[in-house]
Amino acid sequence: MRAGSAVAAGDLPPAGLAEHAVRAALERAGLARAARVLLFLTRDCARQAPAAVRAAAGAAGTLDVTGCTAWGVVADDGPAFEGPAAAALVLDAAPLGGTGGQRLFFSGHGTLPPAIASDGTRTGLVDEDAVVWSHGRCALEGSVEATLDGIATRLVRSSGLRPLCPAETVEAAGLLDLHRLGGQAALEHLRRHLPAELRADPPLHRIVAVTDGNAPALPILAANADGTLTLAEALHPGQRISWALRSPLGAEKDMRDALAAAVDPEKPPLFALFFSCLGRGPMFYGGEDRDLAAFREAFPGVPLAGAYGSGQVAPGTGGSRLFQNSVVTLLCESAHVQSLP
Question: How far apart are CA 215 and CA 218, in angstroms?
Answer without folding.
Answer: 9
